[in-house]
UniProtKB/TrEMBL annotation, chains A, B:
<keyword id="KW-0238">DNA-binding</keyword>
<protein>
    <submittedName>
        <fullName>Helix-turn-helix transcriptional regulator</fullName>
    </submittedName>
</protein>
<dbReference type="GO" id="GO:0003700">
    <property type="term" value="F:DNA-binding transcription factor activity"/>
</dbReference>
<dbReference type="Pfam" id="PF00440">
    <property type="entry name" value="TetR_N"/>
</dbReference>
<dbReference type="InterPro" id="IPR050109">
    <property type="entry name" value="HTH-type_TetR-like_transc_reg"/>
</dbReference>
<dbReference type="GO" id="GO:0000976">
    <property type="term" value="F:transcription cis-regulatory region binding"/>
</dbReference>
<feature type="DNA-binding region" description="H-T-H motif">
    <location>
        <begin position="29"/>
        <end position="48"/>
    </location>
</feature>
<keyword id="KW-0804">Transcription</keyword>
<feature type="domain" description="HTH tetR-type">
    <location>
        <begin position="6"/>
        <end position="66"/>
    </location>
</feature>
<keyword id="KW-0805">Transcription regulation</keyword>
<dbReference type="InterPro" id="IPR001647">
    <property type="entry name" value="HTH_TetR"/>
</dbReference>
<dbReference type="InterPro" id="IPR009057">
    <property type="entry name" value="Homeodomain-like_sf"/>
</dbReference>
Amino acid sequence: MGRWEADAGGRLQYAAMSLYFERGYDAVTVAEIAERAGLTKRTFFRHYADKREVLFAGAPAFQAGVVAAVAAAPVDQAPVDTVIAALAETGGAQLAQYGEWARARRDLVESSADLRERALIKSADLAAAVAAALRERGVAPGQATLTAHAAVTAFTVGYDRWADGNGVGDLPTAVRETLADLRTALTPG
Amino acid sequence: MGRWEADAGGRLQYAAMSLYFERGYDAVTVAEIAERAGLTKRTFFRHYADKREVLFAGAPAFQAGVVAAVAAAPVDQAPVDTVIAALAETGGAQLAQYGEWARARRDLVESSADLRERALIKSADLAAAVAAALRERGVAPGQATLTAHAAVTAFTVGYDRWADGNGVGDLPTAVRETLADLRTALTPG
Protein backbone atom coordinates (compact mmCIF):
# COMPACT_ATOMS: atom_id res chain seq x y z
CA MET A 1 0.00 0.00 0.00
CA GLY A 2 3.06 2.25 -0.03
CA ARG A 3 1.88 4.23 -3.03
CA TRP A 4 -1.38 5.27 -1.32
CA GLU A 5 0.39 6.73 1.69
CA ALA A 6 2.71 8.96 -0.28
CA ASP A 7 0.39 11.99 -0.56
CA ALA A 8 -2.80 13.38 0.99
CA GLY A 9 -5.07 11.78 -1.64
CA GLY A 10 -3.50 8.37 -1.06
CA ARG A 11 -3.62 8.70 2.74
CA LEU A 12 -7.31 9.63 2.57
CA GLN A 13 -8.01 6.64 0.32
CA TYR A 14 -6.19 4.27 2.67
CA ALA A 15 -7.99 5.73 5.70
CA ALA A 16 -11.41 5.53 4.00
CA MET A 17 -11.02 1.90 2.93
CA SER A 18 -9.73 0.87 6.36
CA LEU A 19 -12.70 2.51 8.08
CA TYR A 20 -15.27 1.16 5.58
CA PHE A 21 -13.94 -2.38 6.10
CA GLU A 22 -13.97 -1.98 9.89
CA ARG A 23 -17.42 -0.45 10.32
CA GLY A 24 -19.29 -0.67 7.01
CA TYR A 25 -19.68 2.10 4.47
CA ASP A 26 -22.82 3.78 5.87
CA ALA A 27 -21.45 4.23 9.39
CA VAL A 28 -18.32 6.19 8.39
CA THR A 29 -18.27 10.00 8.02
CA VAL A 30 -15.93 12.22 6.02
CA ALA A 31 -14.77 13.80 9.31
CA GLU A 32 -13.68 10.39 10.58
CA ILE A 33 -11.81 9.62 7.36
CA ALA A 34 -9.97 12.93 7.54
CA GLU A 35 -9.12 12.37 11.23
CA ARG A 36 -7.79 8.86 10.58
CA ALA A 37 -5.59 10.26 7.80
CA GLY A 38 -4.35 13.07 10.08
CA LEU A 39 -5.87 15.69 7.74
CA THR A 40 -8.81 18.12 7.75
CA LYS A 41 -12.27 17.76 6.19
CA ARG A 42 -11.33 20.68 3.96
CA THR A 43 -8.37 18.72 2.61
CA PHE A 44 -10.68 15.73 2.00
CA PHE A 45 -13.01 17.85 -0.13
CA ARG A 46 -10.07 19.27 -2.08
CA HIS A 47 -9.36 15.70 -3.22
CA TYR A 48 -12.78 14.00 -3.38
CA ALA A 49 -16.34 15.22 -4.00
CA ASP A 50 -17.87 12.86 -1.40
CA LYS A 51 -17.27 9.66 0.53
CA ARG A 52 -18.22 7.59 -2.53
CA GLU A 53 -15.60 9.08 -4.86
CA VAL A 54 -12.69 8.17 -2.61
CA LEU A 55 -13.35 4.50 -3.48
CA PHE A 56 -13.10 5.22 -7.21
CA ALA A 57 -10.06 7.51 -7.03
CA GLY A 58 -8.20 5.49 -9.67
CA ALA A 59 -11.01 5.49 -12.26
CA PRO A 60 -10.02 8.59 -14.31
CA ALA A 61 -6.39 7.43 -14.66
CA PHE A 62 -7.56 3.91 -15.54
CA GLN A 63 -9.94 5.19 -18.23
CA ALA A 64 -7.30 7.55 -19.66
CA GLY A 65 -4.77 4.70 -19.74
CA VAL A 66 -7.17 2.38 -21.55
CA VAL A 67 -8.10 5.02 -24.13
CA ALA A 68 -4.40 5.82 -24.74
CA ALA A 69 -3.59 2.12 -25.18
CA VAL A 70 -6.45 1.68 -27.68
CA ALA A 71 -5.23 4.71 -29.65
CA ALA A 72 -1.64 3.39 -29.71
CA ALA A 73 -2.44 -0.26 -30.60
CA PRO A 74 -1.38 -1.92 -33.88
CA VAL A 75 -3.98 -1.30 -36.58
CA ASP A 76 -4.00 -4.89 -37.88
CA GLN A 77 -5.63 -6.25 -34.70
CA ALA A 78 -9.32 -7.14 -34.36
CA PRO A 79 -10.96 -4.29 -32.34
CA VAL A 80 -11.99 -6.65 -29.52
CA ASP A 81 -8.40 -7.87 -29.13
CA THR A 82 -7.19 -4.26 -29.02
CA VAL A 83 -9.65 -3.34 -26.28
CA ILE A 84 -9.09 -6.45 -24.18
CA ALA A 85 -5.31 -5.94 -24.34
CA ALA A 86 -5.76 -2.28 -23.31
CA LEU A 87 -8.07 -3.18 -20.40
CA ALA A 88 -6.00 -6.14 -19.22
CA GLU A 89 -2.58 -4.45 -19.36
CA THR A 90 -3.76 -1.10 -17.95
CA GLY A 91 -5.77 -2.91 -15.29
CA GLY A 92 -2.83 -5.13 -14.47
CA ALA A 93 -0.61 -2.09 -14.00
CA GLN A 94 -3.08 0.19 -12.16
CA LEU A 95 -5.60 -2.00 -10.32
CA ALA A 96 -3.24 -4.70 -9.12
CA GLN A 97 -2.30 -2.24 -6.33
CA TYR A 98 -5.49 -3.25 -4.51
CA GLY A 99 -3.84 -6.66 -4.06
CA GLU A 100 -5.23 -8.47 -1.05
CA TRP A 101 -7.90 -5.78 -0.61
CA ALA A 102 -9.47 -6.45 -4.01
CA ARG A 103 -12.12 -8.88 -2.76
CA ALA A 104 -13.03 -6.81 0.28
CA ARG A 105 -13.33 -3.68 -1.87
CA ARG A 106 -15.56 -5.49 -4.37
CA ASP A 107 -17.79 -6.83 -1.54
CA LEU A 108 -17.95 -3.31 -0.08
CA VAL A 109 -19.21 -1.88 -3.39
CA GLU A 110 -21.84 -4.64 -3.60
CA SER A 111 -22.98 -3.87 -0.02
CA SER A 112 -24.27 -0.37 -0.84
CA ALA A 113 -26.78 0.73 -3.49
CA ASP A 114 -24.98 4.10 -3.65
CA LEU A 115 -21.61 2.52 -4.33
CA ARG A 116 -23.08 0.04 -6.80
CA GLU A 117 -24.67 2.90 -8.77
CA ARG A 118 -21.38 4.77 -8.87
CA ALA A 119 -19.51 1.64 -10.03
CA LEU A 120 -22.06 1.08 -12.82
CA ILE A 121 -21.69 4.70 -13.98
CA LYS A 122 -17.90 4.31 -14.04
CA SER A 123 -18.22 1.16 -16.19
CA ALA A 124 -20.70 2.81 -18.56
CA ASP A 125 -18.43 5.86 -18.90
CA LEU A 126 -15.47 3.58 -19.59
CA ALA A 127 -17.40 1.69 -22.30
CA ALA A 128 -18.48 4.98 -23.90
CA ALA A 129 -14.87 6.28 -23.89
CA VAL A 130 -13.60 3.01 -25.40
CA ALA A 131 -16.30 3.09 -28.10
CA ALA A 132 -15.28 6.68 -28.97
CA ALA A 133 -11.60 5.62 -29.16
CA LEU A 134 -12.54 2.79 -31.54
CA ARG A 135 -14.58 5.14 -33.74
CA GLU A 136 -11.48 7.40 -33.91
CA ARG A 137 -9.65 4.40 -35.40
CA GLY A 138 -12.31 3.99 -38.08
CA VAL A 139 -14.40 1.23 -36.48
CA ALA A 140 -18.08 1.55 -37.47
CA PRO A 141 -20.24 3.07 -34.67
CA GLY A 142 -22.43 -0.02 -34.15
CA GLN A 143 -19.45 -2.36 -33.94
CA ALA A 144 -17.55 0.09 -31.72
CA THR A 145 -20.41 0.20 -29.17
CA LEU A 146 -20.88 -3.57 -29.04
CA THR A 147 -17.14 -4.27 -28.89
CA ALA A 148 -16.66 -1.76 -26.07
CA HIS A 149 -19.56 -3.12 -24.01
CA ALA A 150 -18.56 -6.76 -24.52
CA ALA A 151 -14.92 -6.07 -23.65
CA VAL A 152 -15.86 -4.11 -20.52
CA THR A 153 -18.13 -7.01 -19.49
CA ALA A 154 -15.24 -9.47 -19.95
CA PHE A 155 -12.97 -7.17 -17.98
CA THR A 156 -15.48 -6.64 -15.16
CA VAL A 157 -16.27 -10.34 -14.75
CA GLY A 158 -12.57 -11.23 -15.12
CA TYR A 159 -11.70 -8.63 -12.47
CA ASP A 160 -14.33 -10.17 -10.16
CA ARG A 161 -12.84 -13.63 -10.65
CA TRP A 162 -9.39 -12.25 -9.92
CA ALA A 163 -10.77 -10.49 -6.82
CA ASP A 164 -12.43 -13.76 -5.71
CA GLY A 165 -8.94 -15.27 -5.79
CA ASN A 166 -7.92 -12.45 -3.41
CA GLY A 167 -5.83 -10.72 -6.05
CA VAL A 168 -3.19 -13.47 -5.95
CA GLY A 169 -3.37 -14.55 -9.63
CA ASP A 170 -2.56 -12.53 -12.71
CA LEU A 171 -5.26 -10.00 -13.68
CA PRO A 172 -4.51 -9.90 -17.45
CA THR A 173 -4.73 -13.72 -17.59
CA ALA A 174 -8.08 -13.70 -15.75
CA VAL A 175 -9.44 -11.11 -18.22
CA ARG A 176 -8.28 -13.04 -21.30
CA GLU A 177 -9.76 -16.29 -19.96
CA THR A 178 -13.05 -14.50 -19.33
CA LEU A 179 -13.13 -13.20 -22.92
CA ALA A 180 -12.67 -16.80 -24.13
CA ASP A 181 -15.56 -17.88 -21.85
CA LEU A 182 -17.70 -15.02 -23.19
CA ARG A 183 -17.11 -16.24 -26.75
CA THR A 184 -18.13 -19.75 -25.69
CA ALA A 185 -21.25 -18.41 -23.94
CA LEU A 186 -22.31 -16.66 -27.17
CA THR A 187 -21.96 -19.76 -29.35
CA PRO A 188 -25.36 -20.53 -30.92
CA GLY A 189 -27.02 -23.86 -29.97
CA MET B 1 -51.18 5.27 -25.37
CA GLY B 2 -54.60 3.95 -24.40
CA ARG B 3 -53.26 1.44 -21.91
CA TRP B 4 -51.48 4.12 -19.87
CA GLU B 5 -54.63 6.15 -19.38
CA ALA B 6 -56.69 3.33 -17.99
CA ASP B 7 -55.72 3.68 -14.30
CA ALA B 8 -54.11 6.20 -11.96
CA GLY B 9 -50.63 4.71 -12.42
CA GLY B 10 -50.92 4.92 -16.20
CA ARG B 11 -52.34 8.45 -16.14
CA LEU B 12 -49.44 9.58 -13.94
CA GLN B 13 -46.93 7.95 -16.29
CA TYR B 14 -48.48 9.64 -19.31
CA ALA B 15 -48.58 13.02 -17.54
CA ALA B 16 -44.97 12.69 -16.35
CA MET B 17 -43.60 11.79 -19.76
CA SER B 18 -45.56 14.57 -21.46
CA LEU B 19 -44.23 17.15 -18.98
CA TYR B 20 -40.64 15.85 -19.13
CA PHE B 21 -40.67 16.09 -22.92
CA GLU B 22 -42.18 19.60 -22.81
CA ARG B 23 -39.94 21.15 -20.16
CA GLY B 24 -37.05 18.79 -19.46
CA TYR B 25 -36.77 16.37 -16.56
CA ASP B 26 -35.20 18.70 -13.97
CA ALA B 27 -37.83 21.45 -14.29
CA VAL B 28 -40.86 19.25 -13.54
CA THR B 29 -42.18 18.63 -10.00
CA VAL B 30 -44.26 15.77 -8.64
CA ALA B 31 -47.03 18.28 -7.85
CA GLU B 32 -47.19 19.30 -11.51
CA ILE B 33 -47.32 15.67 -12.66
CA ALA B 34 -50.19 14.94 -10.27
CA GLU B 35 -52.04 18.09 -11.36
CA ARG B 36 -51.66 17.24 -15.06
CA ALA B 37 -53.05 13.76 -14.35
CA GLY B 38 -55.96 15.23 -12.34
CA LEU B 39 -54.76 13.44 -9.19
CA THR B 40 -53.13 14.36 -5.87
CA LYS B 41 -49.46 14.20 -4.83
CA ARG B 42 -50.53 11.61 -2.30
CA THR B 43 -51.85 9.39 -5.09
CA PHE B 44 -48.57 9.87 -6.98
CA PHE B 45 -46.57 8.60 -4.00
CA ARG B 46 -48.89 5.62 -3.60
CA HIS B 47 -47.77 4.56 -7.10
CA TYR B 48 -44.17 5.77 -7.43
CA ALA B 49 -41.33 6.40 -4.97
CA ASP B 50 -40.12 9.51 -6.79
CA LYS B 51 -40.17 11.33 -10.13
CA ARG B 52 -37.48 8.97 -11.47
CA GLU B 53 -39.42 5.76 -10.86
CA VAL B 54 -42.41 6.85 -12.93
CA LEU B 55 -40.18 6.53 -16.03
CA PHE B 56 -39.31 2.94 -15.17
CA ALA B 57 -42.78 1.83 -14.16
CA GLY B 58 -42.70 -1.16 -16.51
CA ALA B 59 -39.35 -2.54 -15.31
CA PRO B 60 -40.57 -5.00 -12.63
CA ALA B 61 -43.14 -6.58 -15.00
CA PHE B 62 -40.54 -6.73 -17.77
CA GLN B 63 -37.99 -8.46 -15.53
CA ALA B 64 -40.58 -10.90 -14.19
CA GLY B 65 -41.70 -11.70 -17.74
CA VAL B 66 -38.13 -12.35 -18.89
CA VAL B 67 -37.36 -14.60 -15.91
CA ALA B 68 -40.58 -16.57 -16.44
CA ALA B 69 -39.78 -17.01 -20.16
CA VAL B 70 -36.26 -18.26 -19.34
CA ALA B 71 -37.70 -20.75 -16.82
CA ALA B 72 -40.27 -22.03 -19.34
CA ALA B 73 -37.93 -22.31 -22.37
CA PRO B 74 -37.05 -25.64 -24.03
CA VAL B 75 -34.05 -27.24 -22.30
CA ASP B 76 -32.25 -28.18 -25.52
CA GLN B 77 -31.53 -24.56 -26.46
CA ALA B 78 -28.16 -22.83 -25.99
CA PRO B 79 -28.53 -20.56 -22.90
CA VAL B 80 -27.82 -17.40 -24.92
CA ASP B 81 -30.59 -18.26 -27.39
CA THR B 82 -32.99 -18.85 -24.48
CA VAL B 83 -32.21 -15.47 -22.94
CA ILE B 84 -32.32 -13.52 -26.21
CA ALA B 85 -35.68 -15.08 -27.08
CA ALA B 86 -37.01 -14.20 -23.61
CA LEU B 87 -35.77 -10.59 -23.82
CA ALA B 88 -36.89 -10.05 -27.42
CA GLU B 89 -40.37 -11.54 -27.05
CA THR B 90 -41.10 -10.03 -23.63
CA GLY B 91 -39.68 -6.70 -24.78
CA GLY B 92 -41.70 -6.87 -27.98
CA ALA B 93 -44.87 -7.43 -25.97
CA GLN B 94 -44.25 -4.96 -23.13
CA LEU B 95 -41.95 -2.20 -24.37
CA ALA B 96 -43.42 -1.75 -27.83
CA GLN B 97 -46.13 0.31 -26.09
CA TYR B 98 -43.70 3.26 -26.03
CA GLY B 99 -44.03 3.29 -29.80
CA GLU B 100 -43.28 6.71 -31.24
CA TRP B 101 -42.14 7.93 -27.78
CA ALA B 102 -39.31 5.38 -27.58
CA ARG B 103 -36.60 7.68 -28.96
CA ALA B 104 -37.70 10.71 -26.95
CA ARG B 105 -37.81 8.59 -23.77
CA ARG B 106 -34.31 7.20 -24.44
CA ASP B 107 -32.93 10.73 -25.09
CA LEU B 108 -34.61 11.91 -21.88
CA VAL B 109 -32.86 9.19 -19.85
CA GLU B 110 -29.52 10.15 -21.43
CA SER B 111 -30.13 13.83 -20.58
CA SER B 112 -30.01 13.31 -16.81
CA ALA B 113 -27.28 11.70 -14.68
CA ASP B 114 -29.99 10.67 -12.20
CA LEU B 115 -32.06 8.89 -14.84
CA ARG B 116 -28.99 7.32 -16.42
CA GLU B 117 -27.96 5.88 -13.04
CA ARG B 118 -31.42 4.46 -12.50
CA ALA B 119 -31.46 2.90 -15.98
CA LEU B 120 -28.06 1.29 -15.38
CA ILE B 121 -29.27 -0.16 -12.06
CA LYS B 122 -32.37 -1.60 -13.79
CA SER B 123 -30.17 -3.26 -16.43
CA ALA B 124 -27.77 -4.66 -13.82
CA ASP B 125 -30.70 -6.01 -11.78
CA LEU B 126 -32.15 -7.58 -14.93
CA ALA B 127 -28.83 -9.26 -15.77
CA ALA B 128 -28.52 -10.59 -12.20
CA ALA B 129 -32.09 -11.99 -12.30
CA VAL B 130 -31.46 -13.63 -15.69
CA ALA B 131 -28.18 -15.16 -14.42
CA ALA B 132 -30.04 -16.58 -11.41
CA ALA B 133 -32.75 -18.02 -13.70
CA LEU B 134 -30.04 -19.70 -15.81
CA ARG B 135 -28.35 -21.18 -12.73
CA GLU B 136 -31.75 -22.59 -11.73
CA ARG B 137 -31.69 -24.44 -15.06
CA GLY B 138 -28.30 -25.95 -14.28
CA VAL B 139 -26.09 -23.51 -16.21
CA ALA B 140 -22.69 -23.12 -14.51
CA PRO B 141 -22.42 -19.83 -12.53
CA GLY B 142 -19.61 -18.33 -14.63
CA GLN B 143 -21.38 -19.08 -17.90
CA ALA B 144 -24.70 -17.86 -16.48
CA THR B 145 -23.21 -14.47 -15.55
CA LEU B 146 -21.49 -13.93 -18.89
CA THR B 147 -24.49 -15.10 -20.91
CA ALA B 148 -26.85 -12.82 -18.97
CA HIS B 149 -24.61 -9.76 -19.33
CA ALA B 150 -23.95 -10.34 -23.04
CA ALA B 151 -27.64 -10.91 -23.78
CA VAL B 152 -28.70 -7.79 -21.84
CA THR B 153 -26.06 -5.81 -23.80
CA ALA B 154 -27.47 -7.12 -27.10
CA PHE B 155 -30.99 -6.27 -25.92
CA THR B 156 -30.06 -2.77 -24.73
CA VAL B 157 -28.18 -1.86 -27.91
CA GLY B 158 -30.89 -3.48 -30.06
CA TYR B 159 -33.54 -1.52 -28.16
CA ASP B 160 -31.56 1.70 -28.79
CA ARG B 161 -31.40 0.91 -32.50
CA TRP B 162 -35.13 0.26 -32.54
CA ALA B 163 -35.71 3.53 -30.64
CA ASP B 164 -33.48 5.36 -33.15
CA GLY B 165 -35.91 4.13 -35.80
CA ASN B 166 -38.67 5.79 -33.76
CA GLY B 167 -40.13 2.45 -32.70
CA VAL B 168 -41.42 1.76 -36.20
CA GLY B 169 -39.53 -1.50 -36.87
CA ASP B 170 -39.86 -4.82 -35.07
CA LEU B 171 -38.13 -4.89 -31.67
CA PRO B 172 -37.44 -8.67 -31.58
CA THR B 173 -35.80 -8.47 -35.02
CA ALA B 174 -33.61 -5.54 -33.92
CA VAL B 175 -32.49 -7.51 -30.85
CA ARG B 176 -31.65 -10.68 -32.82
CA GLU B 177 -29.69 -8.68 -35.40
CA THR B 178 -27.75 -7.00 -32.60
CA LEU B 179 -26.86 -10.41 -31.11
CA ALA B 180 -25.50 -11.45 -34.51
CA ASP B 181 -23.46 -8.22 -34.64
CA LEU B 182 -22.17 -8.86 -31.12
CA ARG B 183 -20.94 -12.31 -32.18
CA THR B 184 -19.17 -10.72 -35.16
CA ALA B 185 -17.62 -8.05 -32.93
CA LEU B 186 -16.18 -10.78 -30.67
CA THR B 187 -14.56 -12.73 -33.50
CA PRO B 188 -10.78 -12.90 -32.87
CA GLY B 189 -8.48 -11.22 -35.39
